[in-house]
Amino acid sequence: MDTLLHFAGLILHIDTFLGQFVQQYGAWVYAVLFLIVFCETGLVILPFLPGDSLLFIGGAFCATGEMNFAALIILLLAASVSGNSLNYAIGRALGPKVFNTHIPYLERFLDRVALQRTHDFYERHGGKTIVLARFIPVIRTFAPFVAGVSCMRAGRFQFFNVSGAALWVLLLVLAGYFFGNIPFIKQYLNVIVLVGIGAAIVPIVLAALWRMWRKKAAAPMVRKPDSR
User: Fold this and answer.
1) What single-letter DSSP state applies at residue 66?
2) Which GO terms describe its cellular component (predicted)?
3) Does the residue 117 lie in any domain?
4) Chain centroid to CA 49: how far?
5) Cα–Cα distance measured from residue 134 to residue 37, given in angstroms and rounded to the nearest whole number
6) Per residue in 177-206, pLDDT tens?
């Protein structure tokens, strides 16, 4: 419990943590940022690392001269592209093996029809999904893994992986560079981050609930047999 509370505090006060780290360890901060972004995008078990806020705060430090803008952009691009690539590769390696175990008991719980539907979805909308997922915490971590499991074509995945990474990194770092040192934003950064996460996730949840409701409403009602 103490570890979870410490981790939550780190996420909520990442601006303070990063500032202290820059003062104490200097250039080692680049390695820390690379590691955090790489793990958040590359390891499906670590979806709650603070990627968005780190990019924004890193841009703010570039504006004050405490970090180098070009070095930060190159580093974050490398971390986000390689992280997604690892996540995709893990999904691509595990997916076929999991769905082809030939273990009767296990195969009862594996829906190959759902896997095929996921593959078809990524063939049609995988590009938009990979790019847009960059801006949505948690989904950002799972999207490349699912793309790998569903066997999305590697060349297509990498094109949108690089495009999405460039858009994500440049927009957030530039936003931090130009707005991160405004007193109001610095004072309420944690609140802004939480509101931004909520604004990204809530519409997705509502859309999923709406689709579930429509599907349920459209399903034909099963009539009970006449007892006469």
Assistant:
1) S
2) plasma membrane
3) yes
4) 9
5) 11
6) 888 767 766 666 666 665 655 655 565 566
Mean pLDDT of the chain: 76
Domain membership flag for residue 225: no
Q: What is the number of structural domains in the chain?
A: 1
Beta-carbon contacts of residue 217 (< 8 Å; ≥ 6 apart): none
Rounded to whole angstroms, what are the CA distances from 23 to 29, 66, 133, 180? 9, 9, 33, 18
Give residue 156's domain range: 2-216
Q: Is the pTM of this model over 0.85?
A: no
Place of tokens 């990627």: 51
Domain-embedded: residue 222: no
**DSSP one-letter string for 177-208:** HHHTTSHHHHHTHHHHHHHHHHHHHHHHHHHH
pLDDT, tens digit, for every residue of 154-167?
A: 999 999 999 999 99
Confirm whether 223 is domain-assigned.
Answer: no
**94, 92, 99: which is closest to 144 by C-alpha?**
92
